[in-house]
Design brief:
By secondary structure, the protein is mostly helical. Helices cover 68% and strands 4% of the residues. The protein contains 36 helices and six strands. Helix 11 packs parallel to helix 13, helix 16 packs antiparallel against helix 17 and helix 18 runs antiparallel to helix 19. The longest helix is centred in the last third of the chain and has 17 residues. The structure holds one DNA strand.
DNA sequence: GTAGGGTTAG
């Protein structure tokens, strides 16, 4: 008997050390020959050992052969299925166990809930959690952590928080689960609060917590906070591995500090696909499309195959500069190499629409097998930027029919589409419906869209009243929208008020100063034009140089304003002069008020002729066959004179000309444009 | 508990 006890102890520890099936089966054989294989504790140990090596079938067979099954053997089998990556079997087994009258313990609950988490099976998870509470495991740290993780992964943050608050003891893991969960559900501010609470409770964060905090800073775009988190990591000497470095660079990029991001990247000793794509995404989102695409090439020459995430960022870069050839190539590459998931599909649809190919965008949208709200929003916005408000509305109706729930972005896109298509009444109707039927509280952007809708439709007075009536404080954007309407409809009185208000609010972007200046020029108030220029100068605001890009034969050709460096400049200029001659015969008159410098009239005419979009168009005419549609992408807004001039160009050059500016598409054909107003 | 990706404005 004593001998057997010793043997048992010995065998148990040997089992614990077994690394492969062969050595386990040797011990198994010893057990059978010594006639002690039916010992409960030992059998459970045996099942657990097989589980460790992933031999679920042997574990199950052993379990089936047992005459008596205690909690240990049930748990061992649960773990076997959990290790074998069969979550549905785990849940099944858990149910069988309950039916067999076995009272699950901390470990059974933990494993079962983990299985629900991997299946995102919230219903079963809740049921098991309820059972755990009834059995007195409601404040168990292991069960608590796993159910916390379940709710976090399923996006049920409020439920997660209530579990967390009920836990008797919280460790770094449970804190980091909560903090990371809050970040992931877009509640970065609360995540920071929880971190402070954790510190107050005397717990130090670790690398994982720091990672979550970096992400939080990336989300809220709070550079000060970002720097302090970075400082904290350095000061406290947290280990800085690839992941931390990647999230740091991502954080700086998302805060607009792409140079710092690049600096971190260049000093990294170890890089991977994730860090490359974080950098590419950083450049793409900050408007440096060229650098982003160069990095994509550099990444490949360093031996890293781009995955779908890096390609999505590359697609974003293509959208920005209208590089449809590369966009199409990426499409082909993704289809050949990976499956086209919803995110890639959305990025592609957005790329096609922004590169002027609404029909490709539409076709791809119809082919997508599943559609979420972002995908619906993308196609609605695509119709919107192409000035097809009615079609955007049709898609919206389809979306409702498909039982997708519109969100605040849906309505922002829809209202903007209505606005650009002059659908004023429809826009007002859907603004009200958003609040009443869809219970979405309007945010500033929705009010701005509504103001834009009214002002663009000529109902400037109503738009002004709306700004005053809205209970929440509206920022500069609302006044800019009003001002644009005033320019389009020559409402100088309200316009002057709006212009002053805009200047008062100190715009931080040079484009808005240009708008104000354009307004005063339209009102022929030249002193004010000069004043705006002075204000701009004292604010240290430099006008962003305009550039346009034309894609000819699959290559991008960029033109800066007054770009005399182009090898074909002489020929381009000749085409422009010839065209202008014929345009004048048809009634074109230069709107020199759009030149904001105080120079002679003929200089103004020459300056307008040298606007980048015109250089790009002339280049396109020079390099493509007659009748080919031209697509030009411009970084700023098209000016009022170019808007008028390109209408005439479409006649004299007999071309369809599509200009995508910083905001929308202008389709010029036979002397008219798809949009009546230029701004 | 562990980094990177898609939609929205003037």
């Amino acid at each position: 008997m004593l001998l057997q006890k010793w043997v048992l102890k010995d065998l148990k520890s040997s089992l614990l050390n077994c690394k492969n099936t062969l050595s386990i089966s040797k011990i198994h054989a010893v057990l059978i020959t010594s006639g002690i294989s039916n010992n409960g504790a030992l059998a459970a140990q045996l099942i657990a050992s097989y589980a460790r090596t992933g031999d679920v079938n042997i574990a199950q067979k052993l379990f089936d052969d047992l005459p008596k099954r205690g909690i240990d053997s049930w748990n061992a089998l649960l773990i076997a299925y959990s290790r074998g990556n069969s979550p549905p079997e785990v849940i099944n087994l858990y149910r069988k166990m309950s039916l067999a009258g076995i009272r699950p313990d901390s470990s059974s609950f933990t494993v079962a809930i983990k299985a629900c988490t991997s299946l995102l099976d919230l219903k079963s998870g809740r049921e098991i959690w309820k059972h755990a509470v009834e059995c007195g495991y409601g404040s168990d740290i292991f069960v608590g952590s796993s159910v916390l993780n379940l709710f976090v992964k399923c996006g049920e943050m409020d439920e997660a928080m209530s579990v967390f608050d009920g836990m008797s003891r919280r460790d770094v893991v449970s804190w980091s689960t909560v903090i990371a969960g809050l970040v992931r559900s877009g509640r970065a501010g609360e995540a920071m609060d929880e971190y402070r609470r954790m510190q107050r409770e005397g717990l130090e964060g670790d690398g994982v917590v720091m990672l979550a905090l970096i992400q939080a800073c990336a989300d809220v775009e709070d550079l000060k906070m970002a720097c302090s988190v970075h400082g904290c990591i350095v000061r406290r000497g947290f280990p800085v591995d690839v992941m931390v470095q990647t999230s740091l660079l991502d954080m700086y990029a998302k805060n607009g500090k792409v140079e710092i991001a690049s600096c971190i990247f260049r000093t990294m000793s170890c890089r991977n696909v994730v860090s490359w794509s974080a950098l590419i995404s950083g450049y793409a989102r900050n408007g440096h499309a060229g650098v982003a695409l160069e990095l994509l090439v550099e990444m490949q020459s360093c031996g890293f195959e781009p995955d779908s995430v890096s390609l999505v960022s590359a697609l974003l870069a293509c959208s920005h500069v209208g590089f449809s050839r590369l966009g199409r190539e990426i499409h082909g590459f993704v289809v050949r190499r990976y499956e086209l998931d919803r995110v890639v599909g959305t990025a592609l649809i957005d790329m096609y629409a922004k590169c002027g190919s609404l029909s490709h965008a539409q076709a791809l949208f119809e082919r997508m097998s599943s559609r979420d709200v972002v995908l619906w929003n993308t196609i609605i916005a695509s119709y919107g930027i192409h000035g097809q408000g009615k079609k955007a509305l049709l898609i919206f109706h389809r979306m409702i029919k498909a039982r997708a729930r519109p969100d605040h972005v849906t309505f922002a896109s829809l209202l903007s589409a209505m606005s650009h298509s002059g659908l004023v009444e429809e826009g007002q109707y859907w603004f009200d419906a958003m609040i009443k039927d869809y219970k979405i509280q309007p945010m500033e952007k929705h009010y701005v869209s509504l103001i834009d809708l009214l002002a663009r439709g000529g109902r400037v007075e109503e738009a002004r009243r709306l700004i005053e009536d809205v209970e929440c404080e509206l920022g500069i954007a609302a006044w800019v929208a009003l001002l644009s309407g005033c320019i389009n409809h020559k409402k100088f009185l309200i316009g002057e008020m709006a212009a002053k208000k805009v200047l008062e609010l100190k715009p931080d972007c040079p484009g808005i100063y240009t708008l104000v200046s354009n307004f005063f020029a339209a009102a022929r108030k030249w002193d004010e034009v000069a004043m705006v220029r002075r204000v701009m100068k004292t604010a240290g605001m430099k006008k962003v140089p305009g550039y346009s890009v034309a894609e000819v034969d699959g290559r991008l050709h960029a033109f800066l304003v007054e770009d005399k460096s182009h090898p074909l400049y002489e020929e381009i200029l000749k085409i422009l002069e010839d065209m202008e001659h014929r345009m004048r015969a048809l009634g074109y008159v230069s709107k020199t008020e759009f030149v904001l410098q105080n120079v002679k009239e003929e200089v103004k005419v020459r300056m307008l002729r040298n606007h980048s979009e015109r250089l790009a168009i002339a280049f396109g005419i020079l390099k493509t066959r007659p009748g080919t549609r031209l697509l030009i992408t411009k970084n700023l807004r098209v000016c009022g004179d170019c808007h008028e001039a390109i209408k005439f160009m479409s006649i004299v050059a007999e071309r369809e000309i599509v200009v995508r500016d910083a905001k929308r598409f202008h389709h010029f054909k036979n002397g008219s444009c798809s949009c009546s107003d230029y701004w």
